[in-house]
Amino acid sequence: MSKISKVLNLKDKISGNEMDLSLCNLSEVPIRELALFPKATVLDLSCNNITSIPPEFCNLTHLIKVDLSKNQLTSLPDDLGNLANLQHLDLYNNKLTTLPVSFSQLRSLKWLDLKDNPLEADLAKAAGDCLDEKQCKQCSSKVLQHMREIQEEVDRTREKRLLREKELEKKREAKQREREAREKEARKREKAEEKDKRRKEYNAQKAALAAQEQQKKRSEEKKKKNGQAADKKAAVKSAPTPRRSLIGLMFKLLLLLLLGLAGVAAACRLTDLQKEAMCVPINAAVDDGLSWARVQEGVVKQLVQNLSTAAKEFLESTQASKN
Predict the structure, then answer these.
(1) Which Pfam families is this protein grouped with (predicted)?
(2) 76 touches 49 (CB < 8 A)
(3) CB neighbour list of residue 239: distance below 8 Å, 6 or more residues apart
(4) Cβ proximity of 33 and 4 under 8 Å
């Protein structure tokens, strides 16, 4: 139990459906305790030192009549409009300047007193004097109308604000979509560039392989041509070999023949065979050859002597010309 419940015995303050807490020197409203008595639809809190009403007060929806006159209230809770059953509200002699916008939702309100409050001009004009029952009822009607207009203005303002926020949200979404589109286009372009780069690299590799293959083919063809040329040269070089071999063979045969003839001539000349008939012509041929050789020897000697004389005369004339 709170301090208030210890000081006050609320059961002693109830009479029928009325709960009288006036002149109790209260500085706050005993919300929890009041919620325990939902049958108390009339609540008198007048002539206390209450400066504010907590938001939980708006949950006491069973209240029909509330007297808060002669307190120190400077404001009312924002959700006061939740008191849907409230018909009678006395706020005489407080320090209120405005009412919460939700006040327009008190559709059951029939009686209202706002005298002796420092109200704003428009609200004071709507409230009037409230000097009798009729004026207090008119006060209720006019203040509700005034608050409804304020509520409508607030709703319009909120609607405009929501509309502006919605438009801003649309603009942000449009910018976001535009940015995403640009990013998507950039990614697409980068992907295309990457694909083109890979294609160029592939083509370059393919061209390099083709060039290598072509170079290899050319090298093979060159080697083949060089091999054919070498074969031709070898064939050309090796072609004279049979001729050389033939000449050598003929030279050997001729040498053997000469050796054979020389042997026959020596046999017919130096052995007892010289008297034989077959050696007679051979010896005669040898004698004729020797005679011819002696004649030719003289001719050669004379030729050598003539050449020596001519050379000597040439050297002497050359020496004389130099002197």
Answers:
(1) LRR_1, LRR_8
(2) no
(3) none
(4) yes
Cβ-contact 35, 61 below 8 angstroms:
no
Is residue 286 classed exposed, middle or buried when 0-12, 13-18 and 19+ CB atoms within 10 A define those classes? middle
Torsion, CA 190, CA 193, CA 198, CA 200, rounded to 10:
-170
Are the C-beta atoms of 82 and 102 separated by less than 8 Å? yes
Please give the Cα distance from 74 to 63 (Å, whole number). 21
Distance, in Å, from the CA atom of 104 to the CA atom of 306, rounded to the nearest integer, reads 167
pLDDT for 35: 92
Phi, psi angle pair for 68, to nearest 5°:
-115, 20
The predicted structure's pLDDT at residue 252: 78
Predicted pLDDT at 272? 65
The predicted pLDDT at position 104 comes to 93
Residue labelled with tokens 């050859």: 289
Q: Are 275 and 286 in contact (CB under 8 A)?
A: no
Would you say 87 and 106 are in contact if contact means Cβ atoms under 8 Å apart?
A: no
Question: How long, in residues, is the chain?
Answer: 323
Q: Considering all CA atoms of the chain, what is the largest pairwise distance in Å, rounded to the nearest integer?
A: 205
What is the pLDDT, as a whole number, of residue 1?
Answer: 37
**Token pair for residue 196?**
């083109």
Question: What is the mean pLDDT of each successive set of 10 residues along the chain, which is 323 residues long?
Answer: 52 90 93 92 96 95 96 95 96 96 94 95 92 93 94 90 90 90 89 88 87 85 76 58 66 76 68 67 72 72 75 74 67
Where are the domains positioned within the chain? 3-161, 258-299
Torsion of CA 110, 115, 121, 127, to 10 degrees: 20
Homologous superfamily of the 3-161 domain (CATH): Ribonuclease Inhibitor (3.80.10.10)
**Which tokens hold the place of 244?**
């050389």
Is 0.70 topped by the overall pTM? Answer: no
